[in-house]
Amino acid sequence: MKIKHWQLFKDSLIHPKKLAAYRLLPIGKVIQYVLLLVTFVTIISFIQFLTGVGLETSQIKGLKEFINDIKWLIYPFAFILLFLINSFSLFVQISIYAFVGIGTLKLLKKRGEYRHLWRTTAIAITLSTIFTTLLVFFPVNARLCSTVGIIITAVYLTIACTKYPNQPQK
């Protein structure tokens, strides 16, 4: 199945019913998509890091001078560390949502495996990830932001699970 990342992104935002069809994508394509999503989150986190450091260090002259001297060293390592942490975090979230999705499939009496749900979840998590990532620039309660992200992912995953094939009759 030849599909572009842009098409996956568009469908993950607009067409949650199509997400069930993407369970058949090769795992490499799904992981590429997730890593592109992680790159977006890392860039936003890095911007937040850059703006946060500028505000906090303006209080202490010596620390500000020290950071200005070693910026070329701190920023690449910070970006790499942010990328690793965001990757780990997003992959764990996808795995947990996929595990919960197995229960949803059983409740709906649909047929599917963990690997299929993992792929579906990896694409279904897009909207909530973008939403929660961009909300860091606004004064919003972090718990509320996380709750809304969980609800969005759960709704998208449930809609996708309804399109999985039915269990065979015994």
Explain what this protein looks like in three dimensions.
This protein has 170 residues and is an all-alpha fold. It has one domain (5-162). 75% of the residues lie in helices and 0% in strands. It contains seven helices and no strands. The chain has helices at residues 5-14, 27-56, 61-69, 71-108, 114-124, 126-134, 142-162. Helix 2 (27-56) packs across helix 4 and helix 6 (126-134) runs antiparallel to helix 7 (142-162). The longest helix is centred in the middle third of the chain and has 38 residues, at 71-108. The two termini are 32 Å apart. The model is unreliable at 53-57 (pLDDT under 50).
Features:
170 residues, mainly alpha, elongated
- The proportion of residues in beta strands is under 5%
Reported for the largest beta sheet, the result is: none
Structural class by SSE content = mainly alpha
Task: Report mean pLDDT, rounded to a whole number.
Answer: 84
Regions with pLDDT < 50 over 5+ consecutive residues? Answer: 53-57
Number of helices: 7
Estimated radius of gyration: 19 Å
Count of extended strands: 0
Helix content: over 70%
What is the number of domains?
Answer: 1
User: Termini separation (Å)?
Assistant: 32 Å
Order of helices and strands: HHHHHHH
Shape, per Cα inertia axes: elongated
